[in-house]
Design a protein that fits this description.
single chain; 264 residues; alpha/beta; Severin
Length: 264
Amino acid sequence: YAPIPRDVPDAANGGPMTTSPKKLFWINKRILVPMETHVLEREMLKSDRSYILDCGTEIFLWIGMTTLVSEKKTSATALEEYVHLQGRSSIGRTVIMTEGHEIVDFKLHFQHWPKNVVQKLYEAGRQKVAAIFKHQGYDVAEIPDDKPRQLISSNGCLKVWLVDRGCVTLLCTEEQEQLYNGDCYIIQYSYAEDGKDYHLFLAWFGQDSVQEDRVATVSLMSSMADSVKGRAVVGQVLEGREPELFFLVFKSLIIFKGWQEYCI
């Protein structure tokens, strides 16, 4: 007679393990409350709770972002007790994760896992902070997001003059966005706002420009500013130290090395 062989798990024989049904529990003060798990959806997980998902060979502990600290500690204890009672301390693996840091293996057990969870976490965190301040007796009001402050109107008129050896030349539209670091320029940007005219005058000095041209540029710019109607603002700009406002008046700007000859 041949001995009757003992039943051996499929995994021991090298075959696939039998898929165990998924079990989802909500942890309520170390008490595991079973939940319906025919179809797992991300919306089933609440940010102020912790859950255990038993997938047979894997057991996951998911902790919501707004769960109280005391509840987080209780959840970890509940997981240890559950694994011990199931007699599975040395079988499979247990994974502990917090909301927003889920591993791929955990997400795959859900039918749908949205991609915009991060924004929801941000909103939940903001609400939690507001609730804490309200509990402490503070009045809480939401401050709207500030729009980027516009430094200057984008509908103005740009003019650029080249100053070279005492000569002043108004550049054409194609040339006014091409500066040379051996020259000095006067830049005028005029625009209207709230029914008023504004004029911005900037003296730009290339790194290789000579001192005589720099002095002449400042003098000529001051004369131009005095002759316009409306409010005029003047300033000096060195190449390599241009403020943000300087680049805003140009649609595009290229700075070449060398000199731009116009006067003979």
